[in-house]
Every structure is written in C-alpha cells, then in structure tokens.
C-alpha cells in the first residue's frame, strides 16, 4: 500500500538518465493503484452516506500526485529528445557554410559571411525587421521540440508554406453520383460547389538572453541553446492560440468558432453535446454523456480521435467507472505514452477551460484532420547587444497560423442543461 508514499519525491528526482525515467514511470503506476484503492473506499463511503474526510483528502492528494508525476515523465521524455550540448559534426556539407556563418554572427555579431550568402542565394537574408534565417537543422530542431511539448501541435496536421497565407479549397457539395449499367449512357454530373479556407500566418517571437561568457565558450552548441531557450515560450503561446486564439495577429483557436448544438450543425460551426446539468456531469451514469460524445463522431474520424482537456478536468474523469466497476481512465501503457479514456488517448492542454456552467472543457475528435497548423518556412534571429547590457538579446521570430480545416472532425462537450 502506498499510503505513506513521499509526496515530495518530485523535487528530489533527477531528470538525467534512463533509470530516472523508468523509476518515474513505475512510481506513477504505483500511485495510480493507490489512487484506485482510496477512490474505491471513497465511493463505498458515499454509498453508505458516511464519507470519511480523511479518505476524501487522500484521494485528492493522490490525484494531484498523479498530475505532478505525469508532468515529470513529460519533462523526462523531452530531456531524452534533446541533443547533448556539444559540437555537431554531422551537418550536411551543403549547409555547413550557412551554419558556420550563422554561428559566427551569434557569437560575435559579425554578419559579413551571412550577407555574402544573401548576395549569392537570396535565401538566408534579413527581413524588413532585420535578423537572419537560422540554418535548416536548427529550424527542424525547433519544429521537433514544439511538436513534443505543444499539445495541439502534437496531434494536429502541420504544413509548411513559403507565403504569408495558406488558402485551401474545399467542396461544399460533392458531384452528383449514381449507379449505371455497363452499356448505358452516362448523364453529366453536377459540378462541385467550392469554397476557400484561409490560414494567415502571424509572427511569434521570443527574446532569450546570453552572457558574454556563454557566447565565448566554444564547447556550447549555440543552435541547441537557442532551441532550448525558445521552445517553452513558443509552445506556451502556441498552446493558448490554438485553443482560444481569435485569429487577429495569431492563429484561430478551435474554441473560437461558433458553437451549435449537434442537431443544428452546419459547415463553419463546431457542434457540441450538452451534459444535461449546468456545470456538472449527470449524477446517474455520468459516463453515458462521454459515450454519446464518442459515438456522435463519424467512424472515419473516430479511429484516430483524441480527448483534449486540462488536468483539472482529467482529475474529475479519473474517478469515473463503467457499469462493471472498471475505471474509464487508464494510465499510459508505456513510458512516454498517453493516458487513455475509454480507449482513446488523452491530450492534456492547460489552456482548455475548467468545468463550469456553459463551458466546453472537453473536446473529442480527429485533430489531424480537423485542425491545421501552418508554419511559414524560416526562423529568424536578430542579435541585439545594446538593449540590455551586459547581456546580449536574441530576438527570435517565426510565423505561425492555424485554424479548423474540417468542422466535422471535432466535437465538444458542453456542461449545460441544454
């Protein structure tokens, strides 16, 4: 029994090696077993109408511990994905010149080599606001890291473009079809009705700072340093925009589109199902509304669907059972995997709203087909040694857009009576 487990273990754990990773995963699993035992006791007490306050407190503490240990595992996964801080000797020869010129600019501020490349190829040059495009390897590394820690990006479709706006046509109504005999004449089909979705990109920036000692240290891989400094800032801003963004100088979030009840759905709107209770799940058979939401999604989208919610909502659903007494929420089956709810992966996005009256804190759908992230090629860095002396600032920008590309593929659960 893990009732006496040390709840402060997260502060003492190292995040350096595989042994720590495995240990964190198994401790997470042990905590979940303890959570199930205490939650079962809580439910038995409730049935007897004599819930023990101490049991309720233990359940909440264990639920909080599961959230903290899951975050530790996520950090360990990201740590394993990071390259060591050292010289990268495997860069392709075709980009080696650009990489060396960029490193010289970052370390010393000398941009003559980069300007020479601009004159030869016009592909590494500075934009109207200054700065230079980073090497392709660094841009790819930033993209990989964002995919690992940006919740919606990790499950959405991602497309790179070279222009400021991606315009995507879609068929409002398909061509007429029908059956016909082998030798029978074919009637001319109606032409498709097309419309256009537009995904403009907006500028996202971060401004990491470095000391002169860091820049002078030849052992430090500056590409890896820049990527590690900006990854969290970019991921946090993206995460908020992909959920709530209004589309004004930022991506449009999937919760920003008009929302209508499932029976009134039409293209351009996101449909929802109501729980039937303001601000809560039904008291009787609360899992039924989750089942309705799952099967409200067409089978073609349901195969690759995911749940999206924040950790508070996940903690609430973690206590639910099916009619056979099995928990609907299950921990990851492998280190680095996702928790599962009713057989579908759970993506934890802290920008999702909390449970409240008329809120939509739970989304379910195939985000790979439903939501599109647009990255404009080219991450730029402008070296600024003047604004924050004695530190050197690196104004780093990338252009990102996003929005719903298929309104059938995402559905919401609304905590309201209707």
Characterization of the model:
- With 418 residues, the chain is of the alpha+beta class.
- It has a domain at 11-81.
- Helices cover 39% and strands 21% of the residues.
- The chain has helices at residues 9-12, 18-47, 53-81, 93-108, 112-121, 136-149, 151-155, 212-216, 222-244, 287-296, 299-302, 311-317, 367-370; strands at residues 132-133, 157-161, 165-173, 193-200, 202-206, 209-210, 259-261, 270-274, 306-309, 329-330, 340-341, 344-348, 362-365, 371-384, 392-404, 410-414.
- The strands form 3 sheets. Strands 7-8-16-13-9-12-11-10 form an 8-stranded mixed β-sheet. Strands 1, 2, 5, 6, 14 and 15 form a 6-stranded mixed β-sheet that branches. The protein has a two-stranded antiparallel ribbon with strand order 3-4.
- Strand 14 and strand 15 (392-404) form a beta hairpin.
- Helix 2 packs antiparallel against helix 3 (53-81), helix 4 (93-108) runs antiparallel to helix 5 and helix 6 (136-149) crosses helix 9.
- The radius of gyration is 25 Å and the shape is flat.
- It starts with 8 loop residues before the first helix and ends with a strand.
Could you write a compact summary of the structure shown?
The chain is of the alpha+beta class. It has helices spanning 9-12, 18-47, 53-81, 93-108, 112-121, 136-149, 151-155, 212-216, 222-244, 287-296, 299-302, 311-317, 367-370; strands at 132-133, 157-161, 165-173, 193-200, 202-206, 209-210, 259-261, 270-274, 306-309, 329-330, 340-341, 344-348, 362-365, 371-384, 392-404, 410-414.
